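Record 1 of the preview.
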Amino acid sequence: MKTDINHIKRTGATFTPEKLANFLAERIFVYQNADNLKVLDPACGDGALLMAMSDVLQRNNRNFELHGFDSNSYYLSVAKENLLIYSKITNASLIQADFLEIVDLRKSQLSFFETKTESVNEFADLVIANPPYVRTQILGTDKAQLLSKKFGLKGRVDLYYPFLIAMTHALKENGLLGVITSNRYLSTKSGESVRKFLTENYEILEVIDLGDTKLFDAAVLPAIFIGRKKSKANNLSSKFYKIYEELNGYNGELISEPSIFDVLKSKSDGYFSVNDKRFKKSSGILKFGKTKENTWILLSNNEASWVSEIENNSKSMVKDHFKVRVGIKTTADKVFISDKWDELKDTKPEEKLLKDLISQENIKPWSICDEKKLRVLYPHFSKEGKKQTIDLKNYPKANSYFLSHEEKLKGRKYLIDAGRNWFEIWVPQNPSLWKLPKLVFPDISTSPRFYFDNTGKIVNGNCYWIVSEKENDNELLLLVQGVANSKLMTKYHDLVFNNKLYSGRRRYFSQYVENYPLPDVNSKESTNIISIVKEINSQNDVATTLLEKLEIAVAKAFNVNPVFNLD
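->
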């Protein structure tokens, strides 16, 4: 089985849990009225989805054929045995082949290579699938290039995207697609092409964001998409459901259910308890933004109304004033970053090159954790506003230190190929900007940690930063800090960007923070927020009453009620 485990890691294969397979099959059947169905799973693995779909169809006295594909012969043998033993299916067509290779997009048909099966055009009435979740680039350069050329892919995309295209070509007009994927495409920039494709090719029936419910053994946040293939799609009444573990301190009434699937089947929204865990479920009509990013908006009526109030009372967004930058990327952190430089003693690089570093590990909302004093060996400086690299001849200790790590550093072939010095930091950013006032925040965090730095520290690549390049922007930077650190903006972030990870962690990527709304910077409410933020930044231990005062001020600026608890 070792080979098969390695195959799973390499290909992103994640077998579908039985309860999830059954739930998806039941949801698809809600929209299926036809008989004599041809059912397809293009990456069938152990056959869980085919079993679940056949069980539902058998219970409802439907006639059907099962068709499954997988590139792994062992998985197919397991699927065949499972279908025979558990579903009494003896005539399933299970073919060993890579579905992405056999789909002929030019003819909109399948060519089954070396099999006796005739070529078919849009043959499936129903597709049920859980395609692999893995970046196409991980498959190897040759494979990635072939997929990119065949499916018209650009940039870094997940393998399930070409599977969606291939499944659509195999599906009859008005056929049903029920697919489990990563939920990333629902809200990320990289998912724009997926959203666009689904919107244009399907009448979207249901989108179910399963969030951090941990339904898979693998660390993946899944989503379900159910759609009907249409040449001209009508998406006026698409339903959405979303469910996430509640970690924000809600202490109100809970509805008890035996499983996540019972929560999803419940007609109620709100807070639920399942096996001593709390979950929040919401539902509504999926709305489609009119921006070029083809945004999908998963908000209930109450949530949408609150978000609209915030946006209607904003005058600008962060990106209207500032550029959100990522921190430095050394691509050799163990060489460049440490909190133990002093232990090197005689081999320690020159003090002038060791710079204080703000990183995920030591940043707090309003301060830095001094216990974790990270410093970075920074071989760059600014001359007349332009980035320069030091001459190692002038820094013999640093030269000696770098030489002791020469093999590691010269192994960064991409840096050498770019005509750079072998000891450089791959992305050093502009050294002249570090001395300016800036906001720094980690890329992933359970809560907002927007820290104001005016001490010239460098920012690590696991954080983002916003720098004040104009002297009169300093107070505007403090306004952003106050708004961004508030519970109100955390609630807005969760609702609009819908990007939580496991254990309540949130992504604070540039694409989200740059779209934070801001109140009128010249209003008395904004002046009040800035004043409160200055007081908070001056304190070592921030009083709760002062943070509550900030919440009230931010809420007043947007003309909504203060958010003291994220419920």
